[in-house]
Design the sequence.
């Protein structure tokens, strides 16, 4: 059964309130949402949204950059046992698209870090991590080269 990511993201956005990233510089914060998975039975998702300010000096071939990096991690666990479980990539991606839904799909620059925990740099079962970068005016930007500590894969648009 094919699950429509856009429809799933809209359902998530309807059910949950997310912080806004369109207002310019964002203060550092962490927000957590715990919810039942919509596309997989008996799975509980813990979605953690973290915003941190950054300012990096220019490199040899890259300009200086400043703004906000937003990390969204989606951890999936078996509802009964609490053990980490794998879920299809569709639902974590729908969650991250719901978090950034206030941006036009063509403007989004969302990067998949995979199962790498951004804090530890280690792979974790049942975890998907994503990042988005915004300049001082809250415009989505590409990942500043100076901040790449793990591979970043642009997930592209829904259409």
Sequence:
């Amino acid at each position: 059964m094919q699950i429509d990511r856009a429809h799933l993201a809209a359902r998530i956005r309807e059910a949950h309130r997310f912080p806004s990233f369109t207002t310019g510089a964002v203060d550092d914060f962490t927000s957590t949402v715990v919810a039942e998975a919509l596309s997989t039975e008996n799975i509980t998702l813990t979605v953690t949204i973290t915003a941190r300010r950054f300012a990096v000096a220019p490199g040899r071939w890259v300009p200086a950059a400043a703004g906000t990096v937003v990390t969204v991690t989606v951890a999936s666990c078996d509802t009964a046992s609490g053990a980490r479980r794998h879920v299809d990539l569709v639902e974590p991606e729908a969650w991250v698209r719901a978090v950034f839904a206030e941006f036009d799909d063509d403007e989004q620059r969302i990067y998949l870090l995979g199962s790498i925990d951004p804090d530890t740099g280690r792979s974790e079962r049942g975890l998907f991590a994503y990042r988005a970068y915004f300049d001082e005016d809250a415009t989505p930007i590409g990942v500043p080269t100076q901040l790449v500590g793990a591979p970043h894969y642009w997930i592209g648009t829904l259409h």
In short: The longest strand covers residues 43-56. The helical segments are 5-15, 90-99. The chain has two helices and seven strands.
